[in-house]
Give the backbone structure.
Amino acid sequence: MKQLPKQLLLVSTLCLLSPHAVMADSYPAKIVSKLNNGLANVVTGVAEIPKNMIITTNKKGLLFGLTSGFAMGVAHTVCRTALGGAEIATFMIPTRTPVKPAYIWKDFDRETRYFDYNMR
């Protein structure tokens, strides 16, 4: 009976140190993340228009923000939506998202960048 607590401690330690705990970012998690990211970018890509209008207005003024910011927003909307569709189509291949920031609502004050492709 005195060996039972030691054995339970050993078994629980081995369970905590198992590969399942280490592999929390496994293949299924990566592909689900990529699919979610693609869906979010397709659905929220249109938010690039007001985002770019705000950023451009803050940098260069209201008139420039309403004109050039709108045009940049339309271009970013097309890119984010198209890349979101590409991520949905290729979600089985776990790569990092080509859009930075990955979601439109993260770093709303930051301009969108593209194509920093690396494997996850």
Summary: The radius of gyration is 22 Å. DSSP finds five helices and two strands in the chain. The mean pLDDT is 83. The CA atoms of residues 74 and 82 lie 12 Å apart.
